[in-house]
Amino acid sequence: MNIKPMGAYLLFLFCMACNNQQTQNKETATEQTQNTLSEQEQKDGWKLLFNGKDLTGWHSYLEKEPGKAWKVDDGAIFLDKDSNSVYKDFADLTSDSEFENFDLKLEFKTDTCANSGVIFYVHEAPEYQNTWETGPEMQIDDVVCGPDHLSKMNRMGTLYDLYPVDSEYVGPSGKWYQYEIIANNGHLQLFQEGHKVVDATMWDQHWQDLINACKFKDMPNFGTFRKGHIAFQGTENGKIWFRNIRIKQL
Hints:
With 250 residues, the protein is α+β, with helices and mostly antiparallel strands.
């Protein structure tokens, strides 16, 4: 088919407009499906831990309500800490509910050089001032310039200070990535973007030996609880967002 230059140009513009519209339609569809469960997911036992609108079901650790630095921004939990924030404002965001055997999936996005984590089996009691005194953490740390990104034991996806990761399946900040944590009768599996990065057994002698050899050795009840809260670490570096937080009890 012989198309004259002006006709070819108009055809190019038409194709570009179609592509842009398709992209917008996909983005709109994606936005509409955030923080929701399909009918099949509901039948399979999945439940949302975040409704996409407010912080119902969450509080800051050892507090009755979420700290004021924790907000909801465009369908995501957002830590909006600034130079005037005090610790109470960004204390770790903690689920009201406790979980024993579970499959947890979520998406997160970091700002440049941000550091945070997903902490589980948190035992909330006044004698423990921090979530990480009782609960293990799946680390979130910007792969480019996060404060722990050079440490194999503490970089993105590690079971912090206990199990290293050989590969990171996430990229730089500013994009959404998926984590999954499966804890079932002591069998712990951590996934980045669908790739298993940690496979561990909790509560046996090897588990205790790992604790005795790391920074948690002086915390006598760290990693011992078999039921507890989920918590998001209130980072002191950068900003972080969480969405599509869903859990299935096993």
